[in-house]
């Protein structure tokens, strides 16, 4: 009987780390804040930005200002897991930073959008990455937001950008962050 009690005690102690890694909703937490990332995939992309915010780049650098909206949240565009709110996608349709001279120069991405189309990155870097036979590049002014992406293993979900023609949004469920990407065509 003592051996059975000791075995149960050891099993209970060993299970504590697994329970500690659970986040709200019972999903495992794998990085970032418990309310950002951790494998959460938004059911839809962002809504179009309100016209009153159009063209606002208060940093003067051309790079959108993204500050942590809550303690522990990334200093990068991200999505709240609890309400699917897209933080940092608010510059509006006429933002000159997102202007492309040749919209969809390599065609349109046809691999599928949203949570029913989760891809695994197959390699590359921020300048050119690929998955499922499709190649993309991160918007150069958002390079600073992808320093912790794993280009050969992270999952990625593509959403259409409702405000900026020619751009797509690449969302990383592990981190809960996203960036604007340009489709480069088949790999």
Description:
This protein is of the alpha+beta class and 187 residues long. The chain contains 1 helix and 9 strands; from the N terminus they run αβββββββββ. It has a 7-stranded antiparallel beta sheet, with no helix packed on it. The longest helix has 19 residues, at 2-20. Mean pLDDT is 82; it is low at 14-32 and 53-61.
What's the quick description here?
With 187 residues, the protein is of the alpha+beta class. The protein has one helix spanning 2-20, and strands at 78-79, 86-87, 118-120, 123-125, 128-131, 134-138, 155-160, 167-172, 177-186. The protein contains 1 helix and 9 strands, in the order H-E-E-E-E-E-E-E-E-E.
How do the helices and strands follow one another from N- to C-terminus?
HEEEEEEEEE
Radius of gyration: 20 Å
Helical amount: 10-25%
- Overall, the morphology is globular
Mean pLDDT: 82
Question: Strand order, biggest sheet?
Answer: 3-7-8-9-6-5-4
Estimated structural class? alpha+beta
Give the distance, in angstroms, between the N- and C-terminal Cα atoms.
63 Å
Number of helices: 1
How many strand elements?
9
Oligomer state equals single chain
Main beta-sheet strand count, sense and barrel state: 7 strands, antiparallel
Low-confidence stretches: 14-32, 53-61
How much of the residues is beta strand, in percent? 15-25%
Give the SSE layout.
Blueprint: H1 2-20, E1 78-79, E2 86-87, E3 118-120, E4 123-125, E5 128-131, E6 134-138, E7 155-160, E8 167-172, E9 177-186
Antiparallel strand pairs: 1-2, 3-7, 4-5, 5-6, 6-9, 7-8, 8-9
């Amino acid at each position: 009987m003592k051996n059975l009690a000791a075995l149960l005690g050891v099993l209970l102690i060993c299970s504590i780390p697994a329970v500690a890694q659970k986040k709200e909703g019972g999903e495992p937490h794998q990085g970032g804040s418990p309310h950002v990332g951790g494998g959460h995939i938004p059911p839809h992309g962002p809504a179009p930005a309100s016209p009153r915010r159009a063209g606002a780049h208060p940093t003067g650098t051309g790079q959108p200002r993204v500050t942590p909206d809550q303690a522990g949240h990334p200093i990068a565009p991200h999505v709240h897991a609890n309400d699917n709110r897209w933080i940092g996608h608010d510059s509006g349709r006429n933002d000159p930073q997102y202007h492309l001279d040749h919209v969809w120069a390599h065609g349109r991405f046809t691999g599928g959008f949203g949570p029913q189309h989760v891809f695994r990155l197959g390699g590359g870097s921020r300048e050119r990455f690929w998955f499922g036979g499709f190649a993309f590049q991160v918007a150069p002014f958002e390079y600073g937001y992808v320093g912790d992406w794993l280009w050969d293993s992270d999952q990625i979900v593509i959403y259409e950008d409702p405000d900026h023609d020619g751009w797509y949004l690449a969302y990383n469920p592990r981190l809960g962050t996203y960036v604007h990407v340009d489709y480069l065509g088949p790999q």
